[in-house]
Design a protein that fits this description.
mainly alpha, elongated, membrane, transmembrane helix, transmembrane
Length: 69
């Protein structure tokens, strides 16, 4: 088995891309969660307890299926 010389040019582009990816992930993590430590990600959603009626849902689905066919 012959020992191959380490080729710096082969590893330069993937290493730079991986470094930029890691930097981007850290940037996203810091600026997403740092200013909003007490805020929930889903705090703007409404807490409604709407119950779907199965028969109405079935009728709507049948209407949509008939439109397609």
């Amino acid at each position: 088995m012959g020992f191959q010389k380490f080729d710096f040019k082969t590893w330069l582009f993937p290493s730079v891309c991986f470094g930029l990816f890691c930097y981007g992930m850290v940037f996203i993590f810091i600026y997403t969660y740092s200013p909003n430590e007490d805020a929930s990600l889903f705090s703007n959603t409404k807490n409604t307890t709407n119950v779907t009626d199965v028969s109405k849902f079935r009728e709507e689905m049948m209407k949509q299926i008939k439109k397609i066919n």
